[in-house]
Specification:
The longest helix is centred in the middle third of the chain and has 27 residues. This protein has a single domain, classed as Cytochrome p450 (Orthogonal Bundle), CATH 1.10.630. The chain is an alpha+beta fold. Helices cover 50% and strands 10% of the residues. Strand 6 and strand 7 form a beta hairpin. Belongs to the cytochrome P450 family. Pfam families: p450. This is Cytochrome P450. One of its GO terms (molecular function) is iron ion binding.
Length: 399
């Protein structure tokens, strides 16, 4: 007779000084499944994460996450209700199709020279500048600048644009009342700002991403609110995760000076490999949460329909069944899966993967060429949390 949800071990308590990876490995040591304080059934292996992401018996969380956070209205609630990331079935297909065509690989690949130029222009003034905040000087501005240019925001608006983005995105997690209010305020600003960009493009079309997207959604099934929400989703997804991934990757490279030196000596050879390993070793996404649509027995436990489930990215990307010496940061690693798991899978795989890789690779290459003597000036950056997008600490570096 199968076990039930009551038989699944609970997550352990945090031990002072533990890293998130150590905490999740302690949870994994209790069995192949564990339940966290929010009621999510978490699986730890890469195989189980892929199983949880199977559309045949699970679906994306829609408004359940907002309701779990005690949110039933407001700007973030409205965004989640209308965004691609939180949709399923035909609604998801309707919202994704225009973006798939607009995000065509060739279109994004053609952005590489522009991204490289922006990275070099941002990094060059830091040579000899002494101690700088890496997140504020490079990791935050670069993806925000790139995504702002893609959606047609004027260059002079980028700093304001980035501030709203990095505040608003906090509201996708369970946060306190003050953070919720600040997030809603910034989401309201973003909504109005994107509405203005859309109105401008409809009045004066250009040969750009936003005009192409609006042309593809014209007379289609999406409401005006959905059209706006997809652009806001592109902005949020294209900024915050890349900021965290770039900072964490540089942090680990500088903690492994022999690997930083490899990158410095041959950036064309190692930039893409360093990006892939950074995304694996310390992923900016803590887990991929879903909800079951039918019962399924896993590891002797009957998981009922309507159960919140999550594949842990922190443990799946250090799964010894997939990776040799999984706890070692190694940019020479040859055992990455063909499709990097951090970008999800199936019909919900991240549309911005190609752009994120270009930004990471070009930033790492520019850092290696322009600031070869880069070093930490204080504690390394840390990504914190085991669910959704992880929080990022600051990091000072010296060139």
């Amino acid at each position: 007779m199968p076990l039930t949800l009551r038989d699944i071990p609970r997550f352990p308590d945090y031990v002072t000084g533990q890293t998130d990876h150590q905490f999740m490995q302690a949870a994994r040591a209790r069995g192949p499944l564990a339940m966290d304080r929010y009621g999510f059934v978490t699986a730890f292996s890469q195989a189980h994460m892929e199983m949880f992401n199977d559309d045949r018996w699970t679906r994306q969380i829609e408004l359940e996450g907002m309701r779990a956070a005690g949110v039933s209205s407001g700007p973030m609630f409205d965004f989640v209700q209308n965004a691609l990331l939180f949709a399923n079935g035909q609604t998801h297909r309707n919202r994704r199709a225009p973006l798939v065509r607009t995000f065509a690989h060739k279109v994004i690949a053609e952005l590489r020279p522009e991204v490289a130029a922006r990275a070099e222009a941002m990094i060059a003034p830091l040579r000899g500048a002494g101690s700088v905040d890496f997140v504020q000087a490079i990791a935050g501005p670069l993806p925000a600048q790139v995504i702002a240019a893609i959606v047609g925001a004027p260059e002079e608006d980028t700093a304001m644009f980035a501030a709203h983005v990095y505040s608003a995105v906090r509201g996708l997690s369970i946060v306190g009342p003050e953070e919720r209010a600040a997030s809603d305020t910034d989401m309201r600003h973003l909504d109005r700002y994107v509405a203005g960009l859309i109105a401008d493009r409809r009045t004066a079309p250009k040969e750009d991403f936003l005009t192409d997207y609006l042309r593809r959604t014209q007379d289609g099934p999406l409401s005006e609110t959905e059209v706006r929400a997809q652009m806001i989703g592109v902005v949020l997804a294209g900024s915050d995760t890349t900021r965290g991934a770039l900072t964490a990757t540089v942090s680990h490279l500088l903690q492994h000076p022999e690997q930083w030196r490899m990158l410095v000596e041959a950036p064309q050879t190692w930039a893409a490999a360093a990006a892939s390993e950074g995304l694996r070793f310390d992923p900016v996404i803590g887990s991929l949460a879903r909800i079951t649509t039918e019962p399924r027995e896993i590891e002797g436990v009957m998981i009922p329909q309507g159960t919140l489930v999550a594949g842990s990215m922190l443990t799946a990307l250090r799964d010894p069944a997939v990776y040799a010496a999984p706890d070692r940061f190694d940019i020479t690693r040859q055992d990455h899966p063909r499709l990097h798991p951090v970008f999800g899978g199936g019909p919900h795989r991240c549309l911005g993967e190609a752009l994120a890789r270009i930004e990471l690779e070009e930033a790492l290459g520019a850092l290696a060429r322009i600031l070869p003597d880069l070093e930490l000036d204080g504690p390394p950056a840390r990504l914190r949390g085991y669910g959704a997008v992880r929080d990022l600490t600051s990091m000072r570096v010296r060139a």
